[in-house]
Amino acid sequence: LEWCVSVPKVELHAHLNGSVRNSTLFELARVLGDKGVIVFSDVENVIMKDDRTLHEVFKLFDLIHILTTDHSTVTRITKEVIEDFAAENVVYLELRTTPKRNDSIGMSKRSYMDAVMEGLRAVSSVDVDYSPAGLKTNTFNGSMRKKMYVRFLLSIDRRESTEAAMETVKLALEMRDLGVVGIDLSGNPIVGNWSTFLPALKFAKEQGLYITLHCGEVPNQEEIKAMIDFLPHRIGHACCFDEENWRKLKSAKIPVEICLTSNIRTETISSIDIHHFVDLYKAKHPLVLCTDDSGVFSTSLSREYNLASSSFGLGKTEMFQLAEIAINFIFADDGVKTDLRATFEEAVKKLN
Ligand code: 5GP
Fold first, then answer.
1. Domain ranges (residues) in the chain
2. Is 217 a catalytic residue?
3. pTM above 0.90, yes or no
C-alpha cells in the first residue's frame, strides 16, 4: 500500500459528499442529534453499516444530504476532501458534486457551488491550481509546496427534471473560469429516464463542456445503448453490459472510470475475480481506477490501486503505467497534461 500511496495519481470519479470523512459525518450527526433534528443512534447505525446494496447506498446519501446541507458544512467537506486526496499524492483531481437548491435555508445551486469554491480556496496543505487559465491558485506566499490540480464536474441527479438539469448546465457554463469543466449524470440508476436528461446533456456538449455518465449500474440495455450512442467523453462503472453493448463500447473507445470497491460493496459485481477490469485491461481499452465514494466505501485511491494490483496480479511497472495513462482521459487542456507527464517522469526516477 505504501508504494501505491507514493505513486502520483489521477482521480477522475469522486463524488464530493460521498468522499466525506466518517469522523466528520459523526460530528455533524451529533450536532443535529443534540438539536433534535435527527436521532443520533439511528444515524450511527446507518453510517457504521459496512456492506450496503446499491439501494441502501442511496438511502445513506439521503441521510448525508440532511447532514450536509448548509453552506459552511459544504465548505468544510470540500476542504477536507481535497486535502485527503492531496495527502495520498493525487496530483490531479476531478471532483464531482450535485449543486443543490434548498429554498428554506436560502441555498441556490449557485450559492452551493460558491460554498464549494470557498472550501477549495481554504485548502492549506497543498497549492491548488483550479483555473483552466492557470491564473487562479491558492498559492501561499509564493511557496514551493506540493501542487495539485483540481477541476469540477457538476452532477445532474437522476431525480431532477429537464429544467433542473438545464439549470445545472448553465451554472457549469457560468463557472468555467472557476475550474468547472464538465457534467456528470448520477443518482439512483433505477430512477428517471434518459430522455429527461438528454436535452441538457446535448446542450452541454454543444457548448464544449465534457460529459461523463454513470452507465450500466443496472442492466438497462436500452439506456446503455442510448448512452453510448450519445458518445460521452467518459463513462463510469460499465458493469451490466450485454454482449452487444460491450462491443459497442469497445469500438467507440470511450474511457471507463473503474470503481472496484464500490462495485463489490454495492454487489453490482458479485466478486472481484469476475470484474470487467480484466477484460478491458487485456483489450487495452482506455480505463482509469477511481474511488467513487471514498468515505461511504471506506477506501482511498491508493487502496484501489493496491486492490487492482493484488487481485489482477499487476506489478509495479504496470501499476505505474496505469496511473500515468489516466492523464490522457482528464478533462483539462494540453498544458495541464504536459505538466502532469513531467510530474510522473520525476516520480519514476525517485521510485526506482
Ligand atoms: P454529491 O453530488 O452530493 O456531492 O455526492 C453524492 C451524490 O453522488 C449521491 O447523492 C448520488 O447522487 C451520487 N452518487 C454517489 N455515488 C454514486 C454511485 O455509485 N452511483 C450513482 N449513480 N450515483 C452516485
1. 2-351
2. yes
3. yes
